[in-house]
Prior knowledge:
Layout: H1 2-34, H2 37-45, H3 49-76, H4 83-99, H5 104-117, H6 121-148, H7 157-182, H8 184-192, H9 199-222, H10 226-250, H11 268-295
Helix pairs in contact: 3-4, 3-6, 4-5, 5-6, 6-10, 7-9, 7-11, 8-9, 9-10, 10-11
Amino acid sequence: MIGAHQPQRKSRARLITALRWAAALAVFAILFHFLPVAQLRRALASVPPIRFAIILLIYLCAHAMGILKWRMVVNAAGSQLDFTTSAQCYLGGLFGTLFLPSIIGGDVIRMAVGLRRSPRPAAVLAGNVVDRFLDVAAQATLVAIGLVLLPGSLPEQFSALARKFLLIVGGIFIYAGVIKAIDPLRFAIDIDNYKMLPWAIGVRLAFYLPWLELVCGLALILRFFYRGGLFILTALTFTFIAASIIAKVRGLDITCGCFGHASKNWNFTTHLGLDFAILITLIALWVSNRAQQREL
């Protein structure tokens, strides 16, 4: 009896696969029917082939990084997805984002595939929510910076206030670098608590990052390689905030903050509040620097 049911199951699976391919081809046929082919051909003809190839390569690399980022976030939540499945989820979500109403369509497709493929569906859901939060936060930050950078949007007293913040922020990162450089092994253990990097990489970062923070803090105060130091510290702070949120979602006990193990007695809210305050101050320094360049 069992053997008699196996051909039926195989036939049903083939039928389902054929229907899926037919539905996909029908969707593509509808899209290409409404596609303005003549305008698209003229637009492509106006772009040099080499430039088009470079732009296409950058576009594909950006989405490859998007796949890796999405997989890192959902796996940090414990979803246990491999790269192939993550690519299917991400690219399916990209298709939904482009052709379904709003970004919600992409999220629905992405979670539908991930929930079915992952052994821990709840982790996929939590990771996707965190990933969307990070995307929205990054976009909101860019929009806020753009609004602030509009000509005439900053008061004249802003530049003088920014110089005072330079000393404070630079001193914070110098102190944080020194505290962690004194005990790099303890800092390596703190990095390992995030469960995102192999131990060997965490140890290397524990010996490298404190000195990078120290040098960048000096760069802010001395105005030497100022923009490079400001960019590195902004990127480090944003990365640390993202890692902290992911760790909190996973339920990990994180004791590492801006000041390494010296801040182990702080709660998560205090850690995150300080990190966001530093990030906002760094962004304000970026704005002040741009304003000073416009005046020159």
